[in-house]
Amino acid sequence: MAVVALVGASGNFGHKLVPTLADDARISEVRCLSRESIKEPGNAKIKYYRVDYTEPASLDNALKGCNVLVNAMGTNGDYLRNRVQLVDAAARTGVKVYFPRSN
Prior knowledge:
By secondary structure, this protein is α/β, with parallel strands linked by helices. It has a single domain, classed as NAD(P)-binding Rossmann-like Domain (Rossmann fold), CATH 3.40.50. It is built from three helices and five strands; from the N terminus they run βαββαβαβ. α2 crosses α3. The longest helix has 15 residues. It starts with a strand and ends with a strand. The model has no long low-confidence stretch (mean pLDDT 91).
């Protein structure tokens, strides 16, 4: 079973993906990565990780053990730098599949 990380889970598009991913029997865990603290949901399959894009260790911690990374990140802040940090962390931690956000 897959472990899926979702960036931008609280955004306009990402929040629609969370229940779909959590309901999929092929997915054992959905990790929602956010720069802000988010209240834990009632679904035990969904885990929230607070990340800091200037601290690679926080991204590595959130992505370690993930098979798939879905990027629904918003473009606020330093989007390009954050995206590079995210992809670098995915490579370091062995993420196998990356779905990028289209611009």
